[in-house]
Amino acid sequence: MKSNYLLILFLFLSSFGYAQGYDVGGLVKEAGSGLPIPGVNVQVKNGTIGTATDMDGRFSIKGVSSGATLVFTYLGFKNLEYKVVSNTSALSISLQEDSKVLDEVVVIGYGSQKKREVTGAVSVVDSKTLEALKPVKIEQALQGTVSGVNVTTTSGAPGAALDIRIRGIATNGDNRPLTIIDGYIGELGLLNPNDVESITVLKDAQAAIYGSTGANGVILITTKMGKKNAKAKISFNSYTGFQETSRKLSTLDATEYALLLNESYANGGKPLPFPVASGLGKGTNWQNEIFSKSVPIISHDLSFTGGSENVTYAVSGSHLDQEGIVGEAKSGFLRNTARISLGADISDRLKLKTNVIYTYFNRKTLPEGGNASVVMNAVNAPRTLSPYDANGDYTLFPLSGLGNEMINPLAQIANSYNDYNFKKLNGNFGLDYKLFKDFVVTSTIGFNTSNSESKSFAKILDYGGKVFDVTRSSVTQSTVNNNDYSFDIYGTYTKKFGEDHNLVATIGNTIFKEYGNGLFATGYDVPNNSWEFADISLTKGAPAAGIIPVSSYVFDERKLSYFGRVQYDFRGKYLLSAMLRRDSSTKFGPGNKVGYFPSFTAGWVISDEGFYGESKLVNFMKLRASYGTLGNDRIGNNGYISQLSGEATYVFDGALVNGVATGQIPNPDLKWEEAKKFDVGLDLKLFNNNVNIVADYFIDTRADLLIVNIPTSGINGTGAPGASSPTVNGGTVRNSGFEFSIDYKNKLSENFSVSVGYNVTLLKNETLSTNGVPFIPGGSFGISQLPPARMEVGLPIGYFYGYKTDGVFQNQAEVEAHPSQIALGAEAAPGDIRFVDANGDGVININDKTNIGDPIPAATMGFNVQFNYKALDFSMYTFASVGNDMVRNYESIYDDVNHLDYVLDRWTGEGTSNSVPRVTTAATSNKVFSDYFVEDASYIRIQNIQLGYTLNSNIAEKIGISKFRLYTGVNNLYTFTKYRGFDPGASNGQPIGGGIDDGFYPIPRTYMIGLNINF
C-alpha cells in the first residue's frame, strides 16, 4: 500500500512539473558568421504558441511547458529543434545554412525562386539595410547598395523627384524603371520606407516577364506582412533632426568684387564703377542669407503586426515633415501614409491577400533652374548690395549691368506663393486557389487612384523693370485625376518528376487600363493682391485679348497582355528558364499594336558536380547567362494619329476668330522600342559562406528608340501654339559593362561581428544609329547659344558638343599666329581663351565643335560597413561616381555679376595665367560654350553614418518592451569632389542635356537622433 502512495505522489509531482510554464528567450544567429537573423519563426511544436525574432535576432516566449520543443525555421537555413527544460532568457541558437535551400527566396515577377536557382541578374536590398540608411525616400536606399543602379537628384528640395538608372541611359526618352509593389504598378517615392520588407532589382532579361514595360529594368517592392502564429507586435520608430546646406560656393567678397569689376571696366575702356573701393569690407553673403541653419525634419512611424494559424495582419501609419534649407516652410514637404495588409487562409485550398496604401503629401516649391533660380541669384548677386533698403523693403537690383533677370533672392522667396496637395489610394486584392495538387491559380486586382490640386499666385510686383515684374495679379489653379487598374490571372504548375527533375510552369493574362483628366484655369485681379484671397472664385477680371485662361485634357490608355514562363532544373544544378510575353497597346497604330518579348536564362551550379569535391575554399559556385527582348512604350497617347489639340486663328466674314488646329504631327508607323539584353554572370560563396561574390558582364542594345519631338522643318507648322514635331522610332543605343560586388560578414568574437560590402559598375555608352538624322540636340547653355548636348553615332548619348580650348593667349604674337576666332563673336586679344582648330582648316568656327565631355560616369561604386559590438552598432554607407562631367552653367553672363573666387587666378598679363581668361566688359568669345565650362564631376560621398545602442533584452522586458534602440546619425555627411558647383551628382533627368548645372538646390546635410521601440 505504501508503494502505491509513493507511486501516486510521484505521478502527481511529475504531472505538476510537466504542467508548469517556463519563460524562454534568447538570440538566433547564423552558425558561420554569428550575425543575428531577424524574422526567424519560433514555434512550439504541435502547439499554438509562437513568435518571430526581431531585427536583432532576439525572441521571447512566455508560458512554455516543460519538455516542450521549440522549432526554429527560416528560409535558407536548416530547421532546428530545442527542448525546453527550464527558465532561460539567454538561449543562443545557431542555424546552419542549408546548401539545398541557399539564401532567401527572391521575387522575380509573377512568382519567386530560391536564390540558388535564380538565373538572371537580380539584386536585393533588405529591411536591415533600410533600417540603417533611414532614407526619406525609398529610392535613396538603392544608391551604393546595388551594383548597376545609379540614383541622381534633380534637386535637394524636400519632396523633389529622384532619377533611377539601371545599367545606364539607354533611351533619349523616359529611362525610369518599372516599379511593382506587391504585384501591382506603383510609385516608389510615395512609400513609407519603414513599410518595405525588401527591394528586388531585375536588371537583365529576367524582367522580360513584364514585356513592353521592362526595358529600363524592374524594381519589385515587397512590403512588410504579419507572420503566422506570432503574437501582436507594436513597433514605433521615430527620428528628429535638423538640416543645413552641405555646400556653399566660394564667391568674391564686396572688396574683391569691386576691385575686379574696376579691372573689368578698365579693360573695356569704361569709367570705373567703384572709384573708391576701400571700406566695402566683406559685404552681403547672399548664400548665408538664403540658406537657413537648423532646419527641422521629423519622422514618426507606428505599426502593428501579428498573426494566428490562418490569418496575418500588418497595419501602419507614418508622418514626415521636412522644411527646406532654402525658404524653410516655403519649400517644405509633408507626407502622411497609412497601410493595411491582410492575409488569410480561408481553406486548405483558398488564400486571400490584400494590401492597401493611402498617401497624402503637401509640397511647396521655390523657383529652380536657370535664370529664375533663387540659388543662382544668390551666387551671382554682388556683395556690395544689401538685402534691404533704408525703408526696410527688399533692395531692388539695378537693371544696368545685372540684366533684366537677376532679382533679390530674398524678395523672390518672400514673393513665391504656391501649394500642391496630392492624395493617392493604391493597393491590390488577390486570391490563390489550389485547383489540384500541383496547380495554383492566382488572381489579383491592382489599382491606383489619385487626385492632386495645385494653386499658384502671382502678386503685383515691381522689381525695377525686370522680366519678373507683375502688373496684374493672377491665381492659377488645377486639379488632376489619374486612375489605373490591372487585373492579373495566372496559373502556376509545380511538379517534381522522380528524384531529379523539377518543373515550374506559369501562364497568365494581364489587363491594364489607365485613364484620367485634368482641368487648369487662371483668374485675374486677386482681391487685395493677397495670397489669402488667391482663389479663382474671388477673381472678377477678364483675361487679356487673345488669351485663353482655361484648358483641360482627358486620356484613356489600355493594354492587354499574355505571358508564359517555364522553369526547369535537373538535380538543382542545371537550371533553365524561358519566358514569352505578348503585349497589345493603344499607344500604337493598328499595324503595330502587338509586340512579342521572349527571353531565355540558364544556370549551372558547378559546386554541385561530383568532380568538384568538397572544397574548403569555395562553398558555392554558379554560372548563369540570359538573353531576351524587352519593350518600352514610355510616350504620350495617340502619337500615331492627328488630333485637334493646337491653337490657330482663322478669318471668318472678315474677322479674326480663335480656334483649334492640328497638334502633334502624327506618325502611323509608330511602334515599340525594343531592348535586347545579354548577361553572363558568376555567383560565388567562399570561406565557410562568409564571402559572397557576384560578377556580371552585360550588353544592353536598345533599338527603334521612341524619339519625341524629333527636329523637323518649321514649314510643317510645328512652331504653332499647341503643335509639335512627331514621335518617331529612330536610333539605337548600346550600354555594355561589368558589375562586381563582394560582401564579407563574420563574427570575429563573442561580442564583435562585422559586415563589409563593396560593389562597382563599369559602363560604356554608345549611340549606334540615329536613323538617318545627323544628330539630335538637347539642353541649353547661356543665352541664345545652340544646344550644348547631342545624341550622335559613335558617341555617348547626351555628350557635350562645343569648342576645345588650348589655354590663354599670352601676347599679341600668339594671337596673330593663331587662326582667327572672329567667327565666334569677337577678335581675340591677349588674355582671351585660345580655341582649338579641330578640323585644321585654319579658321575657328562652328565646324570646330567636337566632343568635350560626357555626363555619364564611367564607373560607379559603393562601399558599406557595419559593426556590432555588444549593444553597440555602427554603419557607414558611401557612394562614388568616376568619370562623369558636368557643365558649369550657374554663372551669369552679365558684366556686373559676382564671380566664384577662382577668377582671382585670372590672366592679368603675360605669364600670369594659362587657365582663367582676363576680365573685361569688351566683346570677347570667352563665354561661348567650350570645355572651359566643363568640369570633372567625379565624387565620393559619405551618404550615411549611424551609431546605435540597443538596451539589453532582459532589462527591456522588465519594462514591458521587447526592443529599445537609440541611435544618432548623419545623412549626406560630406562629398569629396573637385567640382565647383553645389552637387556633382545632380541631374535634370534629361538623357540629352543632363549634367548641365543651372544652379541645383543643394542636398541638405541632416543630423538626426531617433529610437526604435518594439512592444
From TrEMBL:
Instruction: Tell me which InterPro entries the record gives.
Output: Beta-barrel_TonB, Beta-barrel_TonB_sf, CarboxyPept-like_regulatory, Plug_dom, Plug_dom_sf, TonB-dep_OMP_SusC/RagA, TonB-dep_OMP_SusC/RagA_CS, TonB-dep_rcpt-like
| Family label | Belongs to the TonB-dependent receptor family.
Q: What is this protein called?
A: TonB-linked outer membrane protein, SusC/RagA family
The signal peptide annotation in the UniProt record is: 1-21
Tell me which domain of life the UniProt entry assigns to the organism this sequence originates from: Bacteria
* Protein location: Cell outer membrane
Q: Could you tell me which Pfam families the record lists for this protein? A: CarbopepD_reg_2, Plug, TonB_dep_Rec_b-barrel
Residue ranges of every copy of the TonB-dependent receptor-like beta-barrel domain listed in the record: 388-973
Molecular function via GO = siderophore uptake transmembrane transporter activity
